Amino acid sequence: MLKVIYFLARGAGPSINTLFKRGQLFTSLALALSHGTNDAQKTMGIIAMAMVTTGYVTTFYVPWWVITLSASAIALGTALGGWRLIRTLGGKIFKIRPVHAFDSQLTSAGIILGAALFGGPVSTTQVVSSSIMGAGAADRLSKVRWTVGRDLLVAWVLTIPSRPCWQRGCTRSRI
What we know:
The chain has one domain (23-161). By secondary structure, the chain is an all-alpha fold. The chain is built from seven helices and no strands.
């Protein structure tokens, strides 16, 4: 996507950065919308499924309070922990300029919204991280600090197996 943006912006002067900064208003809104359509839905589905299996409700539906709770939790988590994530993604992977931020937000929003429309759960953090690394690599492979990417990959791989057994739904074998 960055190569397409560079092609469309060829011959432009440094003032094009102002256009990309202003364009980020729309791409960040699209990314926020896609984040809500994907991550909150997974949480609501798990809560609704738990309500059905425990007998709290007899049919599978998502009550208004679950929607409100899930949306509030996503907003609170983004507000409280989002800056640490933004600092890592925006500065530790590589030095992002407005064109890279515009590109990664546009790409991430498209992927996440596409996944939400087709019913595929994806990790917003993984998609955004990958699109930022892709934007840096599109400029120059050596521009990306691949050790940060490796650390992110290790964290993603260890996240699922490291959860306690009761969260994964496994049972203890009897000897």
